[in-house]
Design the sequence.
């Protein structure tokens, strides 16, 4: 965070103090992992003596990819979110098929699957067979990509392992909310999945390295709520900038442009807390982000994170672990896939 962003927060010190007091009361509800994640363990494969160096293998492959394509960090994050929030963290988003989750309209822009394929091939080769689940590989890869995306102090957190892979995937299951959802609707959605307000505010911070198609914000720029006017909660400078990037309509054959969700860090895919400063100054690109400022259950945490990167870093690590523990399959549930794109039953290479 630069000096200007720091002063933006300091100007409202009293409000921050109030926010912190509210935060302390809510923090107690978000310091533990979901009950279903209890069978997960640190160094699970090392303890089983099946793939002791899996984390090193995953980290190396992610670094190789990152060096060529830094956009892999938000891509992997999006995969994990799309997986865990639908049917739990069971790698169902990775399955191919005409009616799988990949085919849901909300998931058509999800990308990054080839890296997971590559990691799976390497891990199975080094560990002499399919002993590490695709679900665990995905969680490890996201953690390592996030660490690479950050300046010093970026989140690197222990990933609890032992997930098994799901046996199905259905586009009809996908209920991911719209980027225009209200804060009340977003909070209700997260709570329905077993997460809370702190997780909601914290995980939205991943938008600091995100992009969005203009189609998701065109109504904010030109015809908010069918008024023929822009969203009044967007600053004039951001409105003018985004209008230059996103025309009111597209010409025939013209691709829908994309915009970074944070100007300062987005193009470099650098993980930071700039997202929250944008919320405070009404410079958020997506309505779902800007709405955090106007909800009493979310605004105190926005204020805290905007002023304290360390609090955001720690909070993000916790919320990622909580999301990564949702409805996991363990023990003899599910399976360990040989190919992340197919269940073993449907794998064309398995006779």
Sequence:
């Amino acid at each position: 965070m630069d000096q200007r962003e720091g002063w933006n927060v300091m100007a409202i010190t009293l409000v921050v103090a109030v926010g912190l007091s509210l935060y302390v009361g809510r923090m107690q509800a978000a310091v533990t992992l979901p009950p279903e994640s209890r069978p997960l363990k640190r160094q699970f494969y090392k303890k089983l003596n099946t793939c002791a160096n899996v984390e090193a293998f995953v980290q190396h492959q992610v670094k190789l990819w990152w060096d060529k394509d830094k956009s892999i960090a938000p891509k992997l994050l999006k995969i994990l979110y799309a997986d865990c929030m639908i049917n739990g963290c069971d790698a169902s988003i990775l399955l191919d098929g005409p009616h799988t989750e990949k085919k849901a309209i909300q998931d058509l822009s999800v990308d990054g699957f080839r890296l997971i394929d590559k990691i799976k091939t390497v891990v199975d080769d080094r560990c002499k067979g399919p002993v590490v689940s695709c679900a665990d590989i995905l969680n490890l890869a996201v953690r390592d990509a996030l660490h690479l995306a950050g300046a010093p102090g970026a989140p690197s957190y222990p990933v609890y392992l032992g997930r098994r892979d799901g046996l199905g995937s259905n586009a009809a299951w996908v209920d991911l909310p719209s980027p225009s959802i209200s804060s009340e609707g977003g909070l209700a959605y997260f709570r329905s999945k077993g997460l809370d307000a702190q997780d909601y505010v914290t995980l939205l911070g991943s938008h600091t390295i995100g992009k969005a198609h203009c189609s998701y914000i065109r109504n904010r720029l030109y015809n908010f709520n069918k008024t023929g006017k822009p969203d009044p909660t967007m600053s004039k400078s951001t409105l003018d900038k985004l209008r230059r990037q996103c025309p009111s309509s597209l010409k025939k054959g013209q691709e829908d442009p994309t915009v970074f969700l944070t100007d300062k860090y987005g193009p470099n895919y650098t993980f930071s807390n700039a997202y929250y400063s944008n919320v405070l100054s009404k410079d958020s690109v997506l309505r779902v982000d800007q709405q955090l400022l106007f909800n009493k259950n979310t605004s105190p945490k926005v204020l805290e994170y905007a002023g304290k990167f360390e609090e955001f870093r720690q909070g993000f690590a916790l919320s990622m672990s909580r999301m990564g523990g949702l409805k996991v399959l363990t023990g003899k549930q599910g399976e360990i896939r040989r190919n992340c794109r197919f269940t073993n039953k449907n794998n064309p290479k398995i006779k």
About this structure: The chain has 15 helices and two strands. The mean pLDDT is 90.
